[in-house]
Specification:
- About 60% of the residues lie in helices and about 0% in strands.
- The chain is an all-alpha fold.
- It has a domain at about 5-65.
- Helix 1 (about 5-20) runs antiparallel to helix 2.
- The longest helix has 25 residues, at about 25-50.
Amino acid sequence: MQSDGRLKARYHRLVLRSGGYRNKTAKKKAIIAVAHTLILIIWHVLTEGVPHTDLGVDFYARRIDPQQETRRLIARLEALGHKITIEHAAV
């Protein structure tokens, strides 16, 4: 059974971070990391006696601070030689 959730998002995030989908090593590393996460989930369920609740496919996106991400992206563009001016969008 396939479903969207934190583990799927973790796998895709790790594959991209480790070299992309064409890289077999990146896929293997991501599978090992997701297996480790599953072991931790099982351990918590067994020791605490509470059912597992998935944190959702957007778990990693919700953790990002918008201001910090803006500063990181501006610094990255400036490192590539671009001049950046920020204008906030009208609400």
